[in-house]
Amino acid sequence: MKRTTKNMTFLSVLGLLLAISACTKNFDKINTNPNAPNFVPTAYLLTCAEKGLMDFTWDRWWNASTGMILAEYYSENLYTNESQFFFRTNLTYQYWGYFYGSGLNDQGGGAVTVAGMKSLQTIIDECNATPSKYIASGAINNQKAVATILEVWEYQNLTDTWGDIPFSQALKDVTITQPKYDKQSDIYTGLLAKLDSAIAWIDVSKTDLQGDLIYSGNMSAWLKFANSLKLRVAIRMADVNSTVAKTEIMAAVAGGVFSSNADNALLPYISAGPNYNPLYYDRFVSGRTDFCASNVIVDVMNRLNDPRRPFYFDTIAAGGTNPGGTFVGRPFGQNGSDAGNTQLSSVSQPSGASNSSSTGLSLSATAPGVFLDYAQVQFILAEAVERGYISGTAESYYDAGIQGSFDFWGAPGGAAYIAQDSVGYTALKSAGRTWKSIIGEQKWLALYNQGIQGWIEYRRLDFGILQAPVDGFLVGSAVPVRMQYPYNESQLNPTGYNGAISDQGADVMATKVWWDIN
Fold it and tell me: Which pLDDT score, from 0 to 100, does residue 194 have?
């Protein structure tokens, strides 16, 4: 992990370097502010953006209490409103701003500023405007390509969460204070165009990209990431524009997608603050015990005798109505009173939280944050075969997706698991299950810890499993299919906000996004 530690120091020394960069020999120029830098290397912007996008995506707030709840991987031990789909309005407001701009991550006592997409757009703009000034951070086109790929990754997350969002007028002209909300169909067209540009810019012969925590400047790896991300963008629009989806998936496969876990796009974390894995920080540094295993996922994994259980969750101790050494999920959607009557020790906690014999990977300090992984790609390819987009067998890609997940977690027994009639592709089809149900269930299991992605696949593939809160809803009447916009958007950007309402429907969690037609 020597490379990781070296790269992470970019964030620790950024403030010092920014101050130094403002110094000049002409100290008599009183109009020069020594604390306001006039030049920041784009390498530092890239490091800060890569870490920021993952920190905000993976942390206690957006991942654990939003994504992991929406996907029903977690239940809540203490403050249970989210499990009844009542989400904090200030949280939505804050993270909308973090993803577009920047903010303070949880670690470092509120002193660590990490970045969002604005820093990525700054890289692109500066490299276009004065490339000679930024060449020290790497080949200009490669810098633009990496920044663009990461923008596409984040824009897709945002639009799949909210639907219509600012896109074409976002992050560019500061005079545009009320950017329009683009239709999601137009955003998807734009995402594919951005990826095509990034792929065309990549020069795999150049190895001088600086500040890259994900691939250390390996542009061949970035090219695979770009094509794999194109695969994901395309498959999500398959139900509403199959022709374009097929064309783009064929192009992505031809260009080269992930072929093993070695290709995964990961943000490495280290065993020192402020660069811990955010879920580790929340549980062990902050000492919070807000989340445990949901009965929804535990019941599925128990039914399938899934060997990944100890990698996801701890077993419970002996005592009570359940025997020790078993996996037990808390009923999803309990109210505060019912949850408070259940001992933490009687429900499974995230792996490593309460059991010293646990594998502990899900809460490891050094567990990586996942941008995109091999297992996801294989499940997409299985679906692409079923839709007639590519050749091959759906079963082989499906099996590879399951095995890829097992290998990522280090879980044994993948082949025996796949051989079960309750998991095997052919056996399940023979029993009358649809391909969406078969692929969807295993993809959802493989996306554990990637809460927002698991929730998105539930909405898109309609594989069932997720259930209503046991103690009822605090808002709405079904599993949400989108998040509501930040509470202040209707006041700060009424034109854009009202345009989105006119286009896609009421700003409620029951309004479906463009690609969700089932």
Answer: 98
Query: Tokens at residue 316, please?
Result: 């419970």
Q: How remote is the C-alpha of 315 from its chain's centroid?
A: 27
Q: Is 265 helix (H, G, I), strand (E, B) or coil?
A: strand
**Per-residue CA distances from 119 to 45, 64, 100 (Å):** 6, 25, 9
Q: What's 283's DSSP letter? A: I
Distance separating alpha carbons of residues 26 and 119, to the nearest angstrom: 30
Please report, for residues 44, 131, 182, 220, 501, the alpha-carbon distance to residue 173 in angstroms, rounded to integers and kept in the order given. 22, 20, 16, 33, 24
At CA 403, angle to CA 401 and CA 405, rounded to 5?
70
Decide if pLDDT at 378 tops 50.
yes
Q: Output the pLDDT for position 321.
A: 67
How far apart are the C-alpha atoms of 437 and 403, rounded to whole Å? 18
Measured in degrees and rounded to the nearest 5, phi and psi for residue 220 equal -65, -40
Whether 210 shows a pLDDT value over 50: the answer reads yes
Q: Determine which helix (DSSP H) or strand (DSSP E) holds 371, and give its type and residue range.
A: strand 369-372
- Provide mean pLDDT across the span 353-357: 63
- Tokens 């992990």 belong to 1
Indicate the length of the chain as a whole number. Answer: 518
- Calculate the dihedral angle through the C-alpha atoms of 409, 414, 417, 419, rounding to the nearest 10 degrees: 160
Say what angle helices 42-58 and 2-21 make with each other, to 10 degrees.
120
- CA dist list (Å): 222 to 20, 57, 208, 292: 32, 20, 13, 35
Predicted confidence at residue 9, as pLDDT, reads: 42
